[in-house]
Amino acid sequence: MVAAGVGAALIAVTVAAIVISGSSASSTVAPVTSVAHASAAQTSTGHRSVHHAHRAAPVLPPIQPARPGVATVYQQGPPRPEVALTIDDGFCSTCVARLVRSLERTHAHATIFPNGRYSTAWDPVAPAIRRLVAAGQLTIGNHTFLHMSALEEPSSALETDLTRNEDWIEHTFGVSARPFFRPPYGAYNSSALAVAGQLGYTKVIMWSGTVADSNVRTVGYILGAIRHWAKPGAIILMHGNYPATSFALPRIIEILRQRGLRPVTLSELLG
Predict the structure, then answer these.
(1) Of the chain's two ends, which shows fewer C-beta atoms within 10 Å, N or C?
(2) Is 165 in the same domain as 200?
């Protein structure tokens, strides 16, 4: 990229010819690969100045108003060679960061259900999550702000809890969690489903398999659980709470791919 304006210089790398006119530059420019995202120009003092290109803001899907409907419970998806890895909670900052980095490196798809009460773990990785969402690599669902059982709080409290978490997700990640809701502890009743549906959470997500990492587990234990539960259409429950899961994620993705199973988001699995 060539900077425009008064005093802009001609860069001789692999560029054949650049014509600079006014405040714009027109040319056919070969990519500069020696310095990523930067161009260098010789100044009048003989020093080299480096102009860094800013990363473009990710293009996120627009946030639509809530569309009330009937909440349907899903435990798995269609029996296609796809598996939805879903990650709840996230009270371990280093674990959350490692999980996000693994998704970036492997280009695998997944779904997160973060709680706003753990915002100190999620906020630092919000820019990366926005990029993953924009790339269609990540879907976000609502797991409530406080992580209370829907069987222990009245409908009005659940409504407040869901709305508060939705507000946090929209502000932090720039998207809506609708239509996906995962009840904390997998606990729900008809009243909880009615509240979820009224708020636009028409897909209530349970799971067909779990790595049982609500407690501390070893990497070996988690990989064994994946080998057991990884089947076409599976929805697998994981958590961003303890280190083993975050360390295991690259190997989990490898196992799925070796079995011919594609890691997908819930949006991809369920539509």
Answers:
(1) C
(2) yes
